Each structure stands twice: as structure tokens, then as C-alpha cells.
Amino acid sequence: MVELTQEQVKGRQELAEMELEKYNFITQDKLSFRSQKGISEAIVEDLSKQKDEPKWMLDLRLKALKHFLERPLPEWGPNLHNIDFEELTCYIRPDSKKVTNWEDVPKEIKDTFDKIGVPEAEQKYLAGSVAQYESDTIYHNLQEKWAKQGVIFTDVDTAMQEHPDLVKKYFMQAVPIHDNKFSALHAAFWSGGSFVYVPEGVKVDLPLQAYYRMNAAQEGQFEHTLIIAEPKSKVHFLEGCFTAGTSIRTEHGIQPIEEVQKEDKVLTHEGNFKRVYFTQVRPYTGVLHKIHIYGDTTQEIEATEEHPFYAVRRKYSNERNKEWNPEWAEAKNLQQGDYVAIPINKKIISNNFYDFEISMSISDRTRQFIKVKEKVKANKDFFKLAGYFLSEGSTNRGFSSSVSFNVNEKEYIDETKLLFSKVFGVEKFCESVHKTNHGISITVSGAKIARVLEHFGHSSNTKQIPEWMMLESPEKQAELIKSLYFGDGSYMNKKYAWGRKEMFRINTVSKTLAYQVREILLRLGIASSINKQVRKAPRQIMYAIVIGGEYMQKFGALVGEFIETSLNSKKRATMFFVDENYMYAPIKKIETRVVENLPVYNFGVEEDESYSANMVAVHNCTAPKYSEYSLHSAVVEIYVKDYADARYTTVQNWSKNVYNLNTKRSLVDKNAKMEWVGGSLGSYITMLYPCTILRGDNSTATHLNIAFGSGGTWKDGGAKVIHVGENTKSNVIAKSISMGGGTSVYRGLLRINKGAKNASSYVCCSGLILDDFSKSYAFPHNEIYEPTASIAHEATVNKISDEQIFYLTSRGLTDNEARSMIVLGFLNEVARELPLEYAIEFSRLVNLEVDKLGTVG
Length: 857
Hints:
alpha/beta; 23% helix
């Protein structure tokens, strides 16, 4: 076992959750119909009327509803009792007609699907595609080549109108309405989905693909997939910004948004650092909103009008809000006086020592240098010395260091000497008095000391706090703020005609340092503002970090009692408010401008899908975060006739608020072949057990499945295979990854009926656990009633071992590369069966998720 520090375990747990909700984004709904909430006969009847369905379908729906209401929730798997069926909206119809030309799709819906590759994927490698938005299909298309051969690929509603006999013959026959509670719910409220019919002898050599989009909170989506492969046919079915210069808080400091790269970690609205998994730049034509915020005169935030900000609406015109419940609001909907949320960096990594990497000369004659480590105690003394150096220090060509004070600041001079002695063991100091400015400099010789201090900046306008110190404990950081204030701070208490002006200030010419100080003050529970000023002589820009009002008491106590005695004891409210998660700052004004083809930038962030832009919490425009749960309950029915070949591939990445409860079944006839390939990435709870009934002699079934249980999610999946015909064969390979506190469960049923002579089956369920707090279970169930049958079953659960990591890292791989290789090798048996584009993206996701785990025990 690799020994982990408590902080490493905590950091690993924070970073381990896997919810890369790349395709979750909110679109403003334009709807033509939305059913009432809840489950009732009246809603079912209204739905059927809206669709102008035949009576047999309405009768089936009502019969299914009755069965759903009578049947209890299953108790043998994950907890489903949090689903509030009375709050679900089971039918939502977008304001769009079904079209076969992508250009005819309404713009807001087309933009939604363009983001996930429709129709780009169709143009590249699909025979046809269907796109469903909310409860209805809005687009379907099939290449003319296949239509001429009699292939039908459309949505089920259209098929029921154009091919009623086919639909009535097969609909809810492979999966009866009484199969389970959720198949009954599906039958009562189904809408949309895909209908595929492949005539005898036709082999469709390109995949057909469907895309399903849930946009509303507390929505139920119940698409139905019906696939009929006639004898000797073949089918494969797939289911599947800011302007430049905006400052982004990354784990390595402030970066312009255009320089943010994949794999960078950025501060999210939750106060944690999360990984960027894709970046985007696009030309934008439209309105930009420039938002000016009180407390920051140095920069504004300019965003496209639909970009969401984490904000609180202003409730009172003449006083500050009393309640603070931030919500996402698009830039175009923000108003002057509303409060934006500035997240507090919550990450803490405490070090006893820190190794500074410095360059040291090995030859004065050749000027050759080597990189060496200089270990320094990361204690309060070092932080206090750093504050003095940031305010008043400099280095001389990397060979000596100086700190300058006013000649009257004797106590600071003496304390600085003492700190140099404690931290670096300095015994000799050189003092120089500057009569013209009444200053005194303390100089310390030594290249190692100078090159350590150069990590704080080479000049006054490049001063900065090293990133590891930005993540240190607030107690140490308080010492830095204190000495920084002693060196470059001041207290103002002046009376004017309009009243008294009282504040603390810390001055710097480094913009980076100013924002770092503000961030540390927030970690200490102190609100501050940054004012930009231009000095005339010498001409330079000065940044003043200002603390006023109610936060002066706390800051005064921090920097010393000699300041606090001069404070007005009356606590005065400021326009800002700080709680344990955010500082709320009011919007001063909003300006707009129209641009054409201006590059704008955005990126996706794992889990939180947010980042800090100019310190303000913003969404990445691509992921809705609903507190309510939605339900996805689909049914897939596949009929594989004699000598036919069908493959069904699905990779689901639903939002983390979705219950994904599906029923999938295929009926396979003589000499036919059925393949299921599945990947379960998203959703809160998934329960999915594709079933194959091998009813024809010499028929075969293959089930390949990958499940990721992460971050408190529960993936409950597996396969069911029922052998009826003679000489039937099945192969079930199930792989699961458990990480970040997730749970993966394999539940399998293998039944070989009496008379299924010479049937054979191989079942292998394997789990890989990547940490100490996730779980993996296997519940195989075998029923063998035929003595001539042969079966083999394997079930394993493993962890990545230190020996595996050592073997690979000794051959040049990093730890994370080694883990990724092990995990991808573990999944390869299933992943290699995915289409190329899916396999590449799938491997990328695996690499991304494994990389963020850190050291594995």
C-alpha cells in the first residue's frame, strides 16, 4: 500500500467524482404543450389526444397505468423512494414540427444538437439519425440509398401513423406492460423514440443513431425504441463565453481565458479546483454585456448575453439584502444592484517544509547553472518574512536580498532581522541609510536566499505569492497579511463635510498580488475592494486593497491592538457580505455593445461546470444544475429474425440528477445474432439489465458492458440471457469501475431451459476499485435446467496494486499514465467494440478521470 497523508486522501476524494456532463446545458424552452404534473388517467388521455392516437393505443396506455399504480417499487436494488412521481412532467412537446432537413429545425433546438455533433456525426459515419427534444422527435433522416431498399428509420409516433400494422404487431410484445413497474409507467406515458425496420436480405453497413435530449427539471422522458430485423438482414443502432483577457483563477494562479488548456484546474463556484475537460473558442455575433462591479475598479466582466452568473437578486433599494441564496442567472437578465457571488477558495494544503527550486552556478568561468532544491520551513515566521519582502523587498542579481523601511520603523527593522535569522540562519546584516527619503535598507548576502525570494517576483510590479502559499492554512496566511500591511499599509480616519471616512489600505503596484491578497482576506472572512489609481510622478498604476465598514474590526484585530484602539467601535454595514462560501458584491452598472464575429471563449469543467472569471462565479454555459430529480424510463424492443444480425450500442451520460431506469430486450430467432454494447457514465442511479431470449436454434448473444460508479452515484447493471433453442451460445462480459465513493453492482440472470440442448454460456463480471471508499458487488444468478448445457462463470474484484504501478513507472510512465494504462487495459475487451469515434472519446474520458485520482492505495 502507498502511504497517503490525510490531505492527499482528502484531495483525492474531492477530485475522484466522475460526472463529466459535457452535454448538459439549459435551453430556453419554446413549448407548444406541457402536461400537468403527476400520474393520472386524465393526463394519459390528454397525452393520447394530443398525439391523435388510435383507440388501441389509448387502451394499452390506460391498462399499463393501472398496473403501474398497483405495483410497488422494487426494494432489492438502490433506493428509489426519492422519486416524486406527482412532481414529474411526463409529456413536454417542443414548439417544432418534425422535419427531415436539418436547416428547418428551429434555431434554439438546432443549436442544442449542434453542440453534441448532430448532424456532423450523421454526415461523417451514419446511415441516418433521429433527434428527440424533450418528449417528441423533432428531426429524422435516412440516407436515400437505404430508403430505396425499403429501410424504415423514423420516430415511433410517425411509424404508428404510416405503418400502423407493423407497430401494433410488435409494440410492447418483447417487453410486456406487466414486465416491471417501470415498463408499465413507460407504456402509459411513452413518447417519441426510434422505429427501425430492415427488410429481408438488406444489410445496413453504416450505423443508425438516435440522440435524446432532456432539458427540463423534474421531467420524465419515455422514448420507445422498436427495431425489427427481418431474415438475413443486418443493422447497427447507436444511442447516443467570455471575451479574451478575462482572468480565470486556476490552480497555478491567474490566467487569461484564452490561455486556459484542457487538464488545467480552475476554481469553481463551489470553492474547489476542478479539471477542464474541453476548451472552446468561437466567433460570436450579437450583444455583449459588460458588467461593472462595486469593489473592483480594475476590470469588468464582458460576456455573451446567455452566459450564466451565480447571483442574488437585490430585494431592497436602500439597504443590503438580508438573505443570500444564489442562483444561476444569464447575463442579459442581471440588473444594476443585483449581487454576484465571488467564491472563497476552500482548498488547504499545509506543509511543514517546502522545497524551492533554484538555479545555482557550478562554474563562474563558464556561467553554467544547475537546478537544486532549497528546503525551507513553511512556518509562520517564513510567511511573516514573505509579507515584509513582498511589501518592501528586492533582490540584487540573485546574489543578495534587501528590505527597506522608514528610519522610524525600528520595530519592523528589528523583526525582519530576527525573521531572517530564524528562517535562513543569517547572522550578519548590512544596513544602509538613505537620507533623501529617510529610509533604511537591510541587506543580506547569499545566492540561495536571494533565489528563494525571487519566487516572490523580480520587481515591484511582478510581485506575487507562490501558489502553494495561496493554499496554505489561513493561520499562516494571516501572518503574511499582517507584515504586508506593516510594510505597505495605512489606516485612514478623516472627517469630511459629508461624514467620516475610515478604512484600512494595502498598496501595491502588482495587480496579481492585489487579487491574491483579496483572495486570502476572503479565506479569513474579510471583505475588501480593489481600487485602481494612476500615480503622476513617477507615472505608474497603483492598486489599493481597501477594507472598510464592518470588516474593519476583524482586520484591526488581525494587524494589532495599536490599530484597533483608534477604530470607531460602531459596526457599520458595507455593501458587501461574506459568508462561509462567497463574498457578494453588487453590480454597479451594465453596459452593452453589439459585435460581429468576435472570438469568445469558454470551457467545460468536470462536475461543477463552473469557474471564476475576474473572481466572479460563472457557469460554463453547458450544464444545467437542477436540485430536482428527473426520470428517464425507456424501453427498447429488438426482433432479430432468422439469420439476421443486430447490434445495439449505447453510451449514456445523463446528468447527475437523473434516475435512469430502462428495460431492454431482444428476441432472437434461428441462426440469428444479437450484440449489446453499453457504457453507463452519467445519472444518479442507473438500473439496466439488457435481456436476450435465444428462442431460435443456433442463435447467439453477446453482452458487453462498462459501468462507472462515482461520486455517490449507483450503477446497477448487468445482463439477462435465456436459452430456449438448441445449440445456442451466449457471452456476457461486464466491467465496472468504482471511484470517488461510487457503487457499481453487477446483477445477472442466466437461464437455460429444459430442451435447450448443447447450450453454452460464458459469464465474466469484473470490478476494479480505484480507492478505499468505493464499492463493487456482484450478484450472478444461474438457473440450469438442461443437463447437456455447459456454462462458465467468473467474478472478480481487484484494486490497482503498488507492484503494477512500480513496474510501469520504472519504464518511464508517470503514475497517472500507469493507472490510465491499467484501467484502459481492463476495459479494452468492451471498449474496442465501440465505434471509432466513441472509442476515442471514451478513452479520453477514462484518462481524464483516472488522472484526477492522484495516488492510489
